[in-house]
Design goal:
Number of helices: 11
Strand content: 15-25%
Largest sheet: 8 strands, parallel, barrel
Number of strands: 10
Strand order of the largest sheet: 1-2-5-6-7-8-9-10
Shape: globular
Helix content: 40-55%
Distance between the termini: 21 Å
Bound molecules: flavin-adenine dinucleotide
Radius of gyration: 20 Å
């Protein structure tokens, strides 16, 4: 079922969902299931599965280093299929511009269509690890809006090369990313919102936000989005702080602000076990306020381990 249909059917009740990251290449999938199992009692209608783009690795060959390109966390679409059939849940693959040609993207989308995946999340992806700025892959897309257009074209039976006489239309519900504190490369929140509107105009059906730690950021963002005519559901993304280093890592990587009170609480902690508990309490307060405000879904970034998400969900849902 589509995310938008789940939201409609919920009739105003806030839903619980989360995002998982595929295991590293060579790891057993069982650990992933062990982390998902405890969350299923909260009946997520859908689970997102991230995609990691390719990266360079260097292998020692005698005195030389041999550079190879690899994907360290493959298997997004396969995991989606396995979640769908194992848990009877809608699983949403993240589809990236970075690292994929349009042809490869079409191939992935056709797989998703055959597997009965009804939703896809369309993202640009970040720069490669050794690069400062995002460079589009040769034959790929530069912006997520172009990827949305490609998916929307498929929904209208328009494949890349118009050689099919009676093409079958896919029917994907398309999600895109939104940034309550603006995307790090964007010159302003207003400019970023206009870009978000372009994604919606190209066919996106819903938005999932980047993490934020002050709900006011989300509420202001939604208001500004509505004011420029973005009418689709805007799902808040929540990440519980889990380690002390998050105080530096999160602002550095995502260019977002942490509230003073949260910083003080984390700084007072003697170890990361205490930080994890502060993160849980903070996320519970955030989630309760979002639910009270009637958001359609609270979407959690689980980053592998689910014990903290379970504790939050048990207090909120
Ligand atoms: C919910 C969520 C899930 C994510 N999942 C993943 C994942 O699975 N894998 C992964 O690698 N990354 C993921 N990301 C990170 C995402 O790939 C990065 O934030 C990336 O840098 C931007 O992606 P986007 O889709 O928002 O890009 P875009 O919407 O293309 O925007 C990127 C930047 O370009 C600007 N822009 C857009 N269009 C134009 C234009 N026409 N001209 C000039 N500027 C423009 C925007 O303002 C923005 O600054 C996720 C992010 C979120 C919020």
């Amino acid at each position: 079922m589509k995310v938008t249909e789940h939201i409609e059917q919920a009739n105003g009740k806030t839903l619980f969902s989360f995002e998982i990251v595929p295991p590293q290449k060579g790891q057993n999938i069982q650990e992933l299931y062990n982390n998902i199992d405890p969350l299923m009692e909260f009946k997520p209608p859908f689970i997102d599965v991230t995609t990691s783009r390719e990266e360079h690795i260097y292998i020692q060959k005698g005195a030389l280093l041999d550079r190879k390109i690899t994907r360290m966390r493959p298997g997004t679409v396969g995991i989606c299929a396995s979640l769908k059939y194992k848990y009877n849940v809608d699983a949403i693959p993240h589809v990236l511009c970075g690292g994929f040609t349009k042809e490869e993207t079409e191939y992935v989308l056709v797989d998703c269509h055959y597997l009965g995946l009804d939703n896809v999340m369309a993202l640009r992806g970040d720069a490669m690890k050794h690069e400062k700025y995002f460079k589009p892959t040769a034959g790929g897309h530069q912006y997520a809006s172009e990827l949305v257009t490609q998916i929307n074209n498929l929904n209208n039976g328009k494949y890349l090369h118009e050689i099919i006489e009676t093409p079958y239309n896919s029917n994907f519900c398309i999600g895109v990313a939104g940034y309550p504190e603006k995307h790090l490369e964007s010159p302003s929140l207003e400019s970023d919102l206009r870009r978000l509107k372009e994604k919606v105009d190209a066919g996106a059906d819903y938005v999932v936000t980047q993490m934020f730690f002050d709900n006011k950021r989300y509420f202001d963002f939604v208001e500004k989005a509505r004011n420029i005519g973005i009418t689709v559901p805007i799902i808040p993304g929540i990440k519980p702080v889990a380690i002390k280093r998050h105080l530096q890592i999160l602002p550095q990587v995502f260019k977002l602000d942490l509230p003073e009170t949260l910083i003080h609480e984390v700084e007072k902690c003697k170890n990361n076990k205490e930080v994890r508990q502060v993160g849980v309490e903070w996320a519970i307060q955030q989630s309760k306020e979002l639910v009270a405000a009637g958001v359609p879904v609270v979407h959690f970034y689980s980053m592998g381990k689910s014990d903290n998400i379970k504790e939050i969900a048990s207090k909120v849902f």
